[in-house]
Design goal:
Elements: E1 3-7, E2 10-13, E3 18-25, E4 34-39, E5 46-51, E6 58-60, E7 68-73, E8 78-83, E9 92-98, E10 102-103, E11 107-112
Parallel strand pairs: 2-11
Antiparallel strand pairs: 1-3, 3-8, 4-5, 4-9, 5-6, 7-8, 9-10, 9-11
């Protein structure tokens, strides 16, 4: 059974940092493109960042470029999202996705202004 478990969310002040983790089981993360998505209250889910399976190429939404960094640790089968300079508009539930097919249950990030 494939499981993606997100952690690391919480309440942080604007300008602060958080690191989200996505721990995978039942699949090897280096076989899949892994993405982080987020959904704010009343809004559609949107892509935040992605790391490719082949060469680790990373992509970011314009809204987070220069502030967020995605990385993976194949030995731990875990993908991370380092979030710096957080803004109130980053408040959302953050989800991990593997290969478009598999989703975690999400972790809530709340940024207070």
């Amino acid at each position: 059974e494939v499981q993606l478990v997100e952690s690391g969310g919480g309440l942080v002040q604007a300008g602060g940092s958080l690191r989200l983790s996505c721990a995978a089981s039942g699949l090897n993360i280096d076989d899949y493109a892994i993405g982080w998505f987020r959904q704010a209250p009343g809004k559609e889910r949107e892509g935040v960042s992605c790391i490719s399976s082949s060469d680790g190429t990373t992509t970011y939404a314009d809204s987070v470029k220069g502030r967020f960094t995605i990385s993976r640790d194949n030995a731990k089968n875990t993908v991370y999202l380092q979030m710096n300079s957080l803004k109130s508009e980053d408040t959302a539930v953050y989800y991990c996705n593997a290969g478009i097919r598999y989703w975690g249950k999400g972790t809530l990030v709340t940024v207070s202004s």
